[in-house]
Structures are given as structure tokens and as C-alpha cells.
Design a protein that fits this description.
The protein has 453 residues and is α/β, with parallel strands linked by helices. 39% of the residues lie in helices and 17% in strands. The protein has an 8-stranded mixed sheet, sandwiched between helices. Strands 12-13-17-14-15-16 form a 6-stranded mixed sheet. Strands 9-10-11 form a 3-stranded antiparallel sheet. The N terminus and C terminus are likely disordered.
Length: 453
């Protein structure tokens, strides 16, 4: 399934400036999602089964996958193994999806891998149907990892798990971060149904589960059927503390005085899950190396401090669960006022659910839209904000000061307006969609690899 692919959209660079393999990937986006692993299996067989040349930590779940994937790869690298990370979606460039030892793969290396896959796509039987962008990206990444000589890869699933292109691998360690309602038309209308789709990647080995909110029994059953060992948060391992000082205890080991370069409490859980996963994959970790790896791993676009005066924060929360986690993190920071939110939201999301979590924190909402065709128009988002405020007024009482709502369709001008409204003493929060962060990447500095401390 093309779980992490983007819909067809206008490239940031002119078509004439894009490499042929980038144009090919852009064009494949039009095929959208197609369930099934037959095409991926056939391509990898023709390419010599590159996925069997390294070990895999497969990361699935609703939120936190990219962060957990990055942390896991950083921990593996810190212990002397050549490590890869496969991420989705990218913010500005396809190469951001494929990291080798913490750095994006070169365009030349990834382009060569894409072209190899492209040749094999042309040889596939017509009956298998059109190959999707995410399938080509995934197969090309696996080829590139094998050719780069990586020893282990943290592999982020796209959408779901059972029919996701990444499920072609057999991972000795699986991490399931959490479960919330999203993509219900594809994955099912209940948390249990979505859990079943994502947990289907477990094929034995060790399965590490983040907060499941009542699905622990299902996790035990899935692992029993798959012959896997279940590791449940709160029972088999613990993660306790704050971003600046937390500890992970698992499998008879403990890792203390850990810290991540983020004020977000949710990153403590993501980093803790990565510690447990790397511990299981490598058979134990060095505490000092764990501390150093986590401290230097910056996850861009996840409550990222972009600048100060005003304080500008960027976060790619794009569903109600992610927005609730962002709101909880912001409440813990005691943001300087006024708080101006610049937001864009995709129209296929639970917009009301996202706004319910976000609006209580905002003094001003600057509603904009991303260049992604699925983006809700700025005016429509503003209407949704006003409707959500009317509901708040009747259920929780009127806020002390009315929420100011502005509309600015251009993301760049929306950010400039938000900065001006916040003033040097206030706060700007840019959120609602990774596509918005892509559009503002240059202004926000959220592109590229994680800087090293």
C-alpha cells in the first residue's frame, strides 16, 4: 500500500530543474494507494532480495513513528553499527526519507537506486497493476541500504502495516508506538481494527508496545499467534521522567539521566521506545552512548524551536491525537503571550477534533493553506475555527478575550503576519500539517538532516 506517499502536486523546483528520477517519482504519486504486497515482492525478488542483507526494527503506529525511527537508528549507530533509517513523508526532498548514519543519502546514490527499481517496474506483469510512488520509494530505499552496507535499519511504516510496502521485511524487533483513530476508511473504524492492521507486521521476535489504552489484551493475542515476545509499557518496561531527565528500565537493564533536545514530553516516550528496541536488537546498550545519541538527535518539525523573539515553534501534528500531544506539551512550557497559531489542515482529517485540542491555547489564529491539493482552503479553516469557538462558548464558557481569527492563503505571508502579531515577546506556533512545514521549510529551517551537537 502506498501508505506514506503524497498526492500529485506541483514540485517546489521547476520541472526542468528536477532530476529524471525525481520527475518519475512525482508522476507516480497520481496512482495513490493500492493494497497488496505482490508488486513489492516481485521487485525485490528481481533485485536480489536486498532486504535480507540487514536487520530491521519495524516501527508502526499512529503517531511518533518518525521520531522513534530516528532515535532507534541513532542508538544503533552510536554502538558502532552502520545504521539506516527510512522515514515518511519527507519535508522538502526525497533523499530526506533515507538516512545512512544519520545523514540523508546523496541524490546520486538514491537516484541510481530509483532507476534500478524503475527498470524492474517496466518488466512487471501487467496483471499486477500500476506500481505506486511509496512502493518504488520503499524498494529503492531497501536497495540503497543494502548497497550502502548498513547493518541494521529502523524502518518506518507508511499507512497501516499489514498491506504497507514496508511489511515485505521480516523484522526481529517491531515497535508499535500507539493507536488512535485515523484513516478509518482504509484501516477500520475502531481502534481495535486499526491495531490489528498495524500489528500484522509482527512475525516473531520481539514486539515493543507503547501506550495502548486498553488494547493490551489484543497485543498479547497477536504476539501469541505470531510466536513473538510481547513487551508492554508499564509491565515489562518503564519510561519515566521529563525531556531533560528521564530513565528507561527494561529487561533487567536501566538507562538513566537521559535527555532529548526537545521540550516535548511525547518525545520522552518515543525515545524510550527506541531505547527498548535497540536494547533488544543489540542485546544490551552502553548507557553513556545512549545518553550521547539521544542528546544529539534533533527531530525536525516535532515541537522544534525555530527562533526566539518571538518564540517560534514548528510541529507537524496532523490528527487529533497528535494535536492533543502537542497541546499537552505546550501547556507544560508556559508560553509567552500572546500565542499566535499559524495553521493549515488537510480536508480529509478530523478538523473539529484537531481544533478542539488546539484552540484553547491560542490567542490568535492565522488560518492558511498548504500547496498540497488536499489542504482545506484558508477561508474554510477559518469558518471551522469560528464554528469550533461557538461550540466552546456553549460548553465551557466564553474565554476572557475573544479569539481573533485571520485568513491568509499564502503560507509565507501567514507566517510573517503571525510573527508581527506575536511581537518580540510572544509565541508563534506553526502546525496542522507536514505539508505546511514543507511550504515554509526555508523560513522555518525544518529541512535536512538532524544537526549534531
Amino acid at each position: 500500500m502506498s501508505g506514506g506517499s503524497r498526492a500529485a502536486r506541483t514540485p517546489k523546483r521547476p520541472r526542468s530543474a528536477r532530476r529524471s528520477w525525481e520527475v518519475y517519482l512525482d508522476e507516480l504519486a497520481a496512482f495513490g494507494m493500492r493494497p497488496g504486497l505482490e508488486r513489492v515482492a516481485a521487485l525485490l525478488e528481481a533485485l536480489g532480495r536486498p532486504q535480507e542483507r540487514f536487520r530491521v526494527v519495524h516501527v508502526v503506529g499512529t503517531n511518533g513513528k518518525s521520531s522513534t525511527t530516528r532515535y532507534t537508528a541513532a542508538l544503533i549507530q552510536a554502538h558502532g553499527r552502520r545504521a539506516g533509517a527510512y522515514l515518511s513523508p519527507h519535508i522538502t526532498d526525497y533523499c530526506e526519507r533515507v538516512l545512512v548514519d544519520g545523514e540523508p543519502i546523496s541524490p546520486e546514490a538514491f537516484g541510481a537506486a530509483v532507476e534500478r527499481v524503475r527498470r524492474e517496474v517496466a518488466r512487471l506483469p501487467v496483471g499486477l497493476g500500476d506500481t505506486t510512488q511509496f512502493e518504488v520509494l520503499t524498494v529503492a530505499a531497501l536497495v540503497a541500504f543494502a548497497e550502502s552496507g548498513v547493518e541494521a535499519v529502523a524502518l518506518e511504516a507508511g499507512l497501516g502495516g499489514r498491506l504497507d510496502a514496508t511489511n515485505i521485511t521480516v523484522a526481529p524487533v517491531v515497535v508499535l508506538t500507539n493507536i488512535a483513530l485515523e484513516h478509518t476508511a482504509v484501516l477500520g473504524g475502531t481502534r481495535a481494527a486499526i491495531f490489528a492492521e498495524k500489528a500484522a507486521v509482527i512475525k516473531g521476535g520481539d514486539a515493543v508496545f507503547g501506550p495502548l489504552g486498553g488494547l493490551e489484551g489484543e497485543a498479547e493475542e497477536v504476539c501469541a499467534r505470531a510466536g513473538a515476545r510481547a513487551h508492554l509499557l508499564g509491565r515489562d518496561f518503564t519510561i519515566e521522567g521529563e525531556p531533560g531527565a528521564f530513565a528507561v528500565r527494561a529487561a533487567g537493564a536501566q538507562y538513566t539521566a537521559l535527555a532529548v533536545p526537545s521540550p516535548a514530553p511525547y518525545q520522552v516516550t518515543n525515545a524510550g521506545l527506541a531505547v527498548v528496541a535497540a536494547h533488544l536488537l543489540l542485546g544490551g546498550l552502553d548507557e553513556a552512548r545512549v545518553r550521547a545519541a539521544l542528546k544529539r538527535t534533533v527531530v525536525r518539525g516535532r515541537l522544534q524551536v525555530v527562533s526566539r523573539a518571538p518564540l517560534v515553534l514548528a510541529d507537524g501534528a496532523h490528527n487529533p491525537a497528535g494535536m492533543e500531544a502537542l497541546a499537552a506539551a505546550l501547556r507544560g512550557i508556559e508560553l509567552p503571550r500572546p500565542v499566535v497559531v499559524a495553521a493549515a489542515v488537510m480536508r480529509d482529517k478530523d478538523v473539529a477534533g484537531m481544533l478542539a485540542a488546539l484552540l484553547p491555547l491560542a490567542d490568535v489564529m492565522v488560518c492558511t493553506q498548504a500547496s498540497e491539493p488536499r489542504s482545506l482552503a484558508a477561508g474554510e479553516l477559518a469558518d471551522a475555527v469560528r464554528a469550533a469557538e461557538r461550540v466552546r462558548d456553549t460548553t465551557t464558557g466564553v474565554r476572557q478575550e475573544p479569539l481573533r481569527v485571520l485568513t491568509e492563503a499564502d503560507p509565507g505571508r501567514a507566517l510573517a503576519s503571525a510573527r508581527e502579531l506575536a511581537g518580540p515577546a510572544g509565541t508563534v506556533v506553526v502546525t496542522g500539517s507536514l505539508y505546511l512545514l514543507e511550504d515554509l521549510a526555508a523560513a522555518l529551517g525544518v529541512a535536512g538532516s538532524a544537526p549534531r551537537a
